[in-house]
Design goal:
96 residues, two-stranded antiparallel sheet, 2 strands, globular
Amino acid sequence: MEASNEDMSELEGGMINIIKVFHKYSGKKCKLKKTELKELINNEMSHFIMKIHENDVLDQLFTDLDQNGDLEIDFKEFIGLIAMVTSACHDLFNPK
């Protein structure tokens, strides 16, 4: 990418951060296994999503996100989680 961070808008910087966080947990394979998804949620999203302690909760979330049934979460499937959480939290940050 040619643009420097100083040239980016807040939204573009946020998008870059989402990509970086995904790759921090997925590594070179660019897919999250169930344990990696749990670690990402518990470490990076704990203010918006309750920490996952129960395997049943993780199993259901993983099944809902894993649209192609390959038992891994790719970036497009991960973005579905980000969109759902962002939409659900919108009212908390909506200026009145």
